[in-house]
Amino acid sequence: MKVNECVNCTDFICDDVKVDCYHMPAFEVDPENVSIILIAEVAADNPKDNYDAPGDSLFQQTTLLAFQDAGVQAETIEDLNAMGIHFTTAVKCAKQGYGLKTETIQHCSQVLEQELNLFPNVRAYLLMGDVAIKAINAIARRQGQKRVIPPGSTYKLRGGDYPFRTGWAFPSYLQAGPAFFIEKTKRRAIAEDITTALLLSKR
Fold first, then answer.
1. pLDDT-derived band of residue 183, with 50, 70 and 90 as boundaries?
2. What is the widest separation between alpha-carbon atoms in the chain?
3. 200 alpha carbon, distance to own chain's centre
């Protein structure tokens, strides 16, 4: 299965994103085997930097480094896919500016929700940054539930118990981008969150 053949945005009404940078994951994936979903912020501004882009894309570089920081022996994003890890973004277009409107995240979370529905056996949802956290909260509220992740700074929220669907949500920091190379404190935190998610996925 390929997600981009199953789920797509149909209206493109958000005015603070770059629609020409719209991207859905095109990995070939067995949905039954996926136990971890990592949700980053937005699609790459340059399509060559997305997770599934050919070659050594920026998202691949920083994500592989994050998993290597956690002690995972992986050389390619496909190695991580084979371990049952799916990579996606909360918003499927690139940002126009620094931030995103709440309305945009809520609207795009409907597409993300359809994507998550494809994977029945997920044990851990790695939420990489505030946009991913807000998107998951929007999904929960549409289902009549309370927010999954409470308000607060990520460093205070990490380590809490946040049930979501068939597993648990892990609020963490954004790993997909150039800042990851220099933010050593956040890199350590991301590695810890990945380690915990991996342990949970094996239970």
1. confident
2. 42
3. 17
| pLDDT of 177 above 80 | no
Contacts for 158 with CB less than 8 Å, ≥ 6 apart: 170, 171, 172, 189, 192, 193
In terms of Cβ atoms closer than 10 Å to its own Cβ (0-12, 13-18, 19+), residue 35 is buried
Cα-based angle 81, 5, 140 (whole degrees, multiple of 5): 75
Give residues with Cβ within 8 angstroms of 82, minimum separation 6.
none
Whole-number pLDDT of residue 176: 81
The model carries a pTM of 0.96
Beta carbons within 8 Å of 20's beta carbon, 6+ residues apart? none
On the question of pLDDT at 182 being above 90, the answer is no
The whole-angstrom distance between residue 192's C-alpha and the CA centroid of its chain comes to 16
pLDDT at 124 exceeding the cut of 90? yes
Q: Three-state SS for 158? A: coil
> Could you give the angle at the alpha carbon of 179 between the alpha carbons of 173 and 185, nearest 5°?
55
Q: Which domain holds residue 106?
A: 3-201
Name the one residue in this structure whose structure tokens are 């709440």.
102
Do 105 and 91 contact (CB within 8 A), yes or no?
Answer: yes
Q: How many domains does the chain have?
A: 1
- Which run of H or E residues covers position 86? strand 85-91
Per-residue pLDDT at 201: 87
The CATH number for 151's domain is 3.40.470.10
Contacts of 100 (CB under 8 A, 6+ apart): 16, 17, 42, 91, 131
